[in-house]
Design brief:
Blueprint (H helix, E strand, L loop, with lengths): L9 H18 L4 H10 L2 E2 L5 E2 L3 H14 L20 H13 L5 H10 L11 H10 L26 E11 L4 E10 L5 E7 L4 H15 L4 E4 L8 H10 L2 E4 L9 H13 L14 H15 L13 H7 L10 H7 L1 E7 L5 E4 L2 E4 L8 E12 L2 E7 L4 E6 L2 H6 L19 H9 L13 H6 L1
Parallel strand pairs: 3-6, 6-7
Antiparallel strand pairs: 1-2, 3-4, 4-5, 8-11, 9-10, 10-13, 11-12, 12-13
């Protein structure tokens, strides 16, 4: 079962993406040592488009950690944050900040040489450019590597068996007499070019990716790796969380390099020429996303998959798919698959039993005030405010709903039985004691008339 209480950090997901690159090469028959060296030579891009390289030692360490403890083992260890640098002088840091503001394209070695020319670095003092890079990162200065070299590795690739690699991409088009903007999220098998699924939506959003990926896995089983671009829907943290839960190697193509996704780009052109261009301004086309999804699925499964492909030696994707001897890998169960699309959300409950998720206030049952709870966000159940939220309450999952303040204003309040407090006679206060000491009665409690019977008894 998937641990719904675990939420992976962006650093762990990025490291998982890097070792997924190595795993993808291993699936192509590369030796692990060669795949690791190739990963060292490759630039890996963050969600912000920043290029990063990693040492061979880091990749080996991450691979060993992943094989031992999964994605959780890739979480970075917490360290005390350093605001600037412990090895560079403050004068050098001030120079780097001012010089970077004047020249954004100056390389780090060039900045070090300039600092040495201004006597900010001694003639025999060694300054590692990695230390400078880290200090600039902490100061929030730009350290972008710039454009890739022309000699970058751009070799073509193709997987040998079905479901080794699935390529996903979004194709924008217009439909209907009013030219409504629509996006078709396609899933294509790399080895056989077989169309696995398509979902039409109004924009490239997360929900379409989740629905399409779930339908593909439910129908055809799990793939070894997913290959997609840096579209807004694909780089979202929720997508990476789901891929990690499914155990899929997620590989992102190079930024602004469509040639690296040649197969899906060719498919998009053929889809446009085969059908999509005819939907624009057509009065007979219903621009509803559901109707367009049905239309594009018919085109994908009943038309495209049966067309001969020159790249397949004249075979159709349908023939290549069904002639493959590679067995499919179905999901453990439908319940397990849905759990993989359920992410945990930790929130603090306010004193009036409210939790806030994505700017929306949800009401939780009484008894959770001022506590921390774990909510279950089901990505396959979209709502007007995001996704359906569930809370484990009394051994059952109950769905949370946005608070209805107007209904709460007119509904009755729950009656709580309060036990009466026992009557306790409090001791005299300091003020009372002071009063009695200052203004004590002149007579005793008997009023100055003692009881003679008491004296005779004594």
């Amino acid at each position: 079962m998937v641990d719904n209480h675990r939420f992976f950090s962006p650093e762990a997901l990025f490291r998982y993406r890097v070792i997924s690159h190595v795993a993808a090469l291993e699936h192509q028959g590369w030796r692990r040592s060669d795949a690791v060296r190739h990963g060292v030579e490759t630039l890996h891009y963050t969600d912000e488009g920043q290029a990063k390289r990693f040492s061979e030692r880091s990749l080996w360490r991450w691979l060993a950690a992943f094989e031992k403890g999964g994605v959780e083992a890739l979480e970075p260890k917490k360290r005390s944050k350093i605001q600037s640098s412990m090895v560079l002088s403050q004068d050098l840091l001030d120079f780097l900040e001012s010089e970077r503001a004047k020249d954004l394209k100056a390389s780090i070695p060039e900045l070090i040489r300039r600092a040495r020319a201004k006597d900010l670095i001694g003639p025999k003092e060694a300054v590692d450019r990695t230390s400078v890079w880290r200090a600039m990162q902490r100061l929030g200065l730009s350290t972008s590597a710039g454009a890739l070299p022309k000699g970058a590795d751009t070799r073509r690739f193709e997987h040998s068996s079905r479901m080794h690699c699935v390529i996903a991409d979004g194709k924008h088009f217009r439909a209907g007499p009013t030219r409504r903007k629509r996006v078709a999220i396609y899933f294509i098998d790399d080895a056989t070019r077989y169309g696995l699924g398509v979902v039409v939506t109004t924009s490239e959003n997360l929900q379409a990716v989740f629905v399409g990926l779930h339908e593909v896995i439910e129908r055809f089983g799990l793939m070894r790796l997913l290959y997609w671009d840096h579209g807004s829907a694909f780089i979202a943290n929720d997508v990476k969380q789901v891929a990690a839960r499914l155990g899929l190697a997620a590989v992102y193509g190079r930024v602004a390099y469509p040639q690296g996704r040649g197969k899906i780009e060719v498919f998009n052109r053929s889809a446009k020429g085969r059908l999509l261009r005819n939907l624009d301004r057509s009065p007979a086309v219903d621009p509803d996303c559901g109707a367009l999804t049905l239309l594009l699925r018919h085109d994908l499964f009943d038309v495209y998959n049966h067309l001969p492909h020159k790249s397949l030696g004249g075979d159709s994707p349908y023939k290549r798919w069904h002639s493959s001897k590679h067995p499919l890998c179905p999901a453990e169960s439908s319940a397990w698959l849905r759990e993989c699309f359920t992410l945990p959300v930790e929130r603090h409950v306010s004193n009036d039993h409210i939790v806030q998720v994505d700017g929306t206030d949800y009401e939780v049952p009484r008894g959770y005030a001022a506590t921390k709870v774990t909510l279950h966000r089901r990505l396959l159940e979209p709502t007007e405010n995001g996704h359906a939220l569930y809370l484990s309450h009394e051994n059952a999952l109950i769905r949370l709903h946005p608070v209805d303040k107007q209904a709460n204003a007119t509904s009755g309040r729950a009656h709580t039985s309060v036990e009466p407090e026992p009557e306790i006679i409090l001791p005299k206060s300091a003020s009372q004691l002071s009063f009695e000491a200052s203004l004590a009665p002149m007579t005793a409690a008997d009023g100055g008339y003692p009881d003679t019977n008491d004296e005779e008894e004594d």
